[in-house]
Amino acid sequence: MKTDTSLPQTVLQEGNLKSIHHIALNVRNLDASRHFYGHILGLHELTGPEVPSTLKDLVASGQVANFVTPDGTVLDLFFEPNLEPPHPDPKQQFTRANHLAFDIDPTLFDTAVAVLQQNNVTLDHGPVSRPTGRGIYFYDPDGFLIEIRCNPSHS
C-alpha cells in the first residue's frame, strides 16, 4: 500500500518519537531533593558547562537543578517553595503521574534496599518479587512515588 505524502500527517507513527528527553518534577525543598536524587539515589547532577543552555539562568538563580540517569534521561527539579503537600498520607495519589521507576542490575538490588533503609527513606511497599523481576517503592522528599526495580536474576 502506497502512502499519500501530499496529505499532512495527522498522527505520529510508531518510531517517530525517539526517547524520553526529560522528566520535570516540582519540589518544595531543592536542597533536600538534591540530596535525595544526587546522594541517596546516586544520580549525576549537571553543573557548569553540562547544564543545558536553556536552563543556565534558572540553575544559576537556584530555581532548577538537573540530574541525568545513566541512560541519559534528564531529571529536572523545579523549585516551588510554596508547593503544598499533596496530602498528609503519602499513599494518597495527587497527580496523574503514578511513579518514576529506575532500573538497577539484579546483583545491586539488595544494596539499593539497604541504602534506602539506612537513609530512613519512607517506603511504600516492597521489596516485591514478580515474574518480571523485583521492585521496591518509596517516596521522595515531596511525596512522589519512586520505584527501583530489576529484571529477574538468572543464576
Defining traits:
single chain; 155 residues; alpha/beta; 2,3-Dihydroxybiphenyl 1,2-Dioxygenase, domain 1; 2 domains; four-stranded mixed sheet; 3 helices; globular
Q: What would you say this structure looks like, in words?
A:
With 155 residues, the protein is α/β, with parallel strands linked by helices. The chain folds into two domains: 20-80, 2,3-Dihydroxybiphenyl 1,2-Dioxygenase, domain 1 (Roll), CATH 3.10.180.10; 98-155, Roll (2,3-Dihydroxybiphenyl 1,2-Dioxygenase, domain 1), CATH 3.10.180.10. It contains three helices and eight strands; from the N terminus they run βαβαβββαβββ. The strands form two sheets. It has a four-stranded mixed sheet. Strands 5-8-7-6 form a four-stranded mixed sheet, with helices on one face. β7 and β8 form a beta hairpin.
Task: Summarize this entry quickly.
By secondary structure, the chain is α/β, with parallel strands linked by helices.
Helix-strand layout with pairing:
Elements: E1 22-27, H1 30-40, E2 44-45, H2 56-60, E3 64-68, E4 74-79, E5 100-103, H3 109-118, E6 123-130, E7 133-139, E8 145-150
Parallel strand pairs: 1-4, 5-8
Antiparallel strand pairs: 2-3, 3-4, 6-7, 7-8
Share of helix, binned: 10-25%
Tally of helical segments = 3
Task: Kindly report the spatial arrangement of strands forming the biggest sheet.
Answer: 1-4-3-2
What name does the CATH topology of the largest domain carry? 2,3-Dihydroxybiphenyl 1,2-Dioxygenase, domain 1
- What structural class do the secondary elements suggest? alpha/beta
| Number of domain units | 2
Q: What does the largest sheet look like?
A: 4 strands, mixed
* Proportion in β-strands: 25-35%
| Series of secondary-structure elements, N-terminal to C-terminal | EHEHEEEHEEE
